Amino acid sequence: MKRPIWLEKEHLRAVIFNDDTPAGRRFDIALTIAIAVSLVILFVESIPSLPYWLKVSLGVLEALLTVVFSVEYIARLYCAESRRGYALSGWGIIDLVSVLPPYLTYFIPGARYMLILRSIRFIRIFRIFRLFTFLNEGELLLQAIGRSLHKIAVYFLFVLVLVICLGTLMFILESGQPNSAFRDIGSSIYWAITTLSTVGYGDITPVTTAGRFLSSFIMLLGYTLIAVPGGIVTASFINTTSEPVRNGRCPRCDAKVRKGDKFCSQCGEKL
Amino acid sequence: MKRPIWLEKEHLRAVIFNDDTPAGRRFDIALTIAIAVSLVILFVESIPSLPYWLKVSLGVLEALLTVVFSVEYIARLYCAESRRGYALSGWGIIDLVSVLPPYLTYFIPGARYMLILRSIRFIRIFRIFRLFTFLNEGELLLQAIGRSLHKIAVYFLFVLVLVICLGTLMFILESGQPNSAFRDIGSSIYWAITTLSTVGYGDITPVTTAGRFLSSFIMLLGYTLIAVPGGIVTASFINTTSEPVRNGRCPRCDAKVRKGDKFCSQCGEKL
Amino acid sequence: MKRPIWLEKEHLRAVIFNDDTPAGRRFDIALTIAIAVSLVILFVESIPSLPYWLKVSLGVLEALLTVVFSVEYIARLYCAESRRGYALSGWGIIDLVSVLPPYLTYFIPGARYMLILRSIRFIRIFRIFRLFTFLNEGELLLQAIGRSLHKIAVYFLFVLVLVICLGTLMFILESGQPNSAFRDIGSSIYWAITTLSTVGYGDITPVTTAGRFLSSFIMLLGYTLIAVPGGIVTASFINTTSEPVRNGRCPRCDAKVRKGDKFCSQCGEKL
Amino acid sequence: MKRPIWLEKEHLRAVIFNDDTPAGRRFDIALTIAIAVSLVILFVESIPSLPYWLKVSLGVLEALLTVVFSVEYIARLYCAESRRGYALSGWGIIDLVSVLPPYLTYFIPGARYMLILRSIRFIRIFRIFRLFTFLNEGELLLQAIGRSLHKIAVYFLFVLVLVICLGTLMFILESGQPNSAFRDIGSSIYWAITTLSTVGYGDITPVTTAGRFLSSFIMLLGYTLIAVPGGIVTASFINTTSEPVRNGRCPRCDAKVRKGDKFCSQCGEKL
């Protein structure tokens, strides 16, 4: 007895992992819709005062989607070139994690914490879209950020030290006031981060003249500091985009040479 | 019997579509004033407690302007080189849409939704100004943004996935508090967007220590993320302004040549 | 009878308009202090519940400073190379405007509106500092901004059209709610500007789901839009700093040549 | 009698000032933990309603850490190559300041103001991390900021003049309203800084139409102004990264040569 065609590994693999075929494209669209529906359910279920019938329908729909995603996970595992490789890859883990939560709730109390696992499902939309068109763009973006990660890390350490000192100073200035929102140093540092990042909720605000003076200083500082990551990333972007200009190596000493150079600038080799 | 000169198609076209003639310039200025007045009416009419006489006067003025814009639309249609072409062009549709709402209110209830159509009138100011001086600037701007649209789309998808995960996490951390403003996951995601974009209304703010900790992290993340579109657009701008410099090679000596060069600048080869 | 030396025009001019001499430097420092004191008086006088004795002392001090600034203005006028030229120059008008308010209050009621004229005094600190060290920096900054002014103007027109449309849309979505802060279209546009610029006061916030959805969209839009002026100004800055690299003209045909070119790329002339 | 090895100056110096040895690395890790614990104590102690036993335990732990830091300071002083040089160096003063506060509280009342000195301890984490990996990155960052410091100073003076004028104008427009939060010119300037820096707490917001109009203008201005430091720093960053490329000339053929080139890339001349 022959297996039906849609159970052939090669055929299944072409549909699931490849979006060049019409079937593969249709599979991706269906999956995108399923994920979007699953996300809408997640949102609606969290609204406190839902009528009973809606709660039940959403529960049923969610159970159905769980079955769909489970089948999809098993299918991916089944037709992957290397099952172990897929299961341990980043996407494999994300796929598993998006499938698990409904099963876990039978064993572990506290379904609340499963919500975050369900929201992870949405990351999978990335894979689908990445396969479509944005592959290169996304990689360039990650490269540019990755290349400037060291600089950004130093910068954040600096910001952290700064907000601790400024938060403590602000606590000293403001905490004496009656009903001050600067209750403790933790809150003050939270406020300092809120201000320096120009978010400015307004749940904690200075009321003393000294506090407002220091606030103004922090804001103007934030104004300048906000420019720093921009400078780092932009410089990195510009280096990325103009990289082809800077390529080439000397065939003798492997030193970098500029386009248009007629002699290697390190060893004098004629190019 | 001869037509009066101001009804001659060519004359009318010169006035309406061309701003080089004094009459055309005067027409544009008059139109700008009419649009500005129409906008002021839109603003004032929306104020809840207006005296009766003002409401009536504004209604009359609006009716007059509608006649003016209608006549203008018909005149444009009448003297356009291709009537069909104008009517289906972007500007033609905007012109029609700016004229229609007062007529539609006679047939369709719910004048509220007509307001948005009336506000679209203001877009027409763009055409008038574009004709004056900013043509090239505007196009360069659009080109620079257009060229980086793919990168920005990937970036937004990434931000979207991020705020869904962060919003869900925040909902888990904060929704247990009494009177929490993190009512549902939708609100929490709205809060995450507010925070990540550094808008920070303060209508929803964390109160738990864990929530404030996560908030601080999101803010510092937003601080860095806000730099990314800046980097993309800036890199695109720089490429726009310096692009002609980076192209082409001399066929004889392979030196770089600029677009428009007639001789290679390294070996004198005619290109 | 000979005039005392400090009344000699040349000597006075050296002191007032020139900061190279020790006397000129001392004059500038004294003037800076006087302006700073005048500013502190402006701030303190505006506090509502001041004791009577402080009000009187501040009034006397302000009167003294007015005399000082008046004498300074007359001295500048007296020793200027061209009195008419100084009086009609930008700085001359600012100097006059900083001196006038106390005199005007004797003739015109409404001292409140004079406050703004008094705050203009502080602009003069700029002249003093400009003479010290920052001359070139300031000019480069203004040049860079000036060169990108056209692009920024187009951009602002675009933002204006956008906030009018978004504000009207938000008014339609939100104004139906009880106690909505979106009272009229003017308020809604004010809200749209607050949001798009990522200021986010929180005095007007959406409460409906549709409104929050549109808000989120506006915030993410503002996130991208905020990058545009950055890109414009930065590109302009980079062009400013690297300009010397791009100079030079062909002596025969006046076409631009790059540094290192050996032949004119337009006419083949050996350089 | 011989000194134990861990009291030998050279050994101690290798452990404390050098992180290349395993002992030095372990010392740095221990110190990082001690500083982190000290910081957590600082945070927790500031919470108003702590149980008595926790207050006492934290006090004891803090006393222990003070002893540790004191011993460390004495050890550093003891084994420094130049004791005077260390004691007067930036890090030496920070080390001393982090140790002193608990001792000072015995003599000087007002322990509150000692908190800021204790928060300074956290700066020391910088030294430890700087020694690990980020040395070059941090220095490049500081260089880039340092090089654009003059431009940023001019810019801040300009912003300061602007907020004083705008704050005064806003005070004139808004202070007449009942219960206006624009109490005095100081508050108004604080508001102007809050708005221009896009922080936007919302503790002070305009209510009059004129005030909201001016606010909208300030916000759009801030939108553009926020781009300026970005432009300055980014331009500086790009110059930092590509500077070596732009320097020097070949003495024979006047072609541009890069720093570090040993032969001219145009004519092969040995440099």
Largest interface: B-C, 65 and 60 residues
Question: What is the top-level CATH class of the largest domain in chain A?
Answer: Mainly Alpha
Q: Point out poorly predicted stretches of chain A.
A: 131-135, 241-247
Overall tally of domains of chain A:
2
Q: Main sheet of chain A, how many strands, which sense, barrel?
A: none
CATH topology of the largest domain in chain A: Four Helix Bundle (Hemerythrin (Met), subunit A)
Share of residues in strands of chain A = under 5%
For the secondary structure, the number of strands of chain A is 0
Alpha-carbon Rg of chain A, integer: 28 Å
Overall pLDDT score of chain A: 77
For the record, the CATH architecture of the largest domain in chain A stands as Up-down Bundle
Q: Whole-Å distance between the termini of chain A?
A: 67 Å
Oligomer: homotetramer
Give the helix proportion of chain A (percent range). Answer: 55-70%
Structural class of chain A: mainly alpha
Shape estimate of chain A: extended
**Number of separate helices of chain A:** 12
The CATH homologous superfamily of the largest domain in chain A is called Voltage-gated potassium channels
Element pattern of chain A in H and E:
HHHHHHHHHHHH
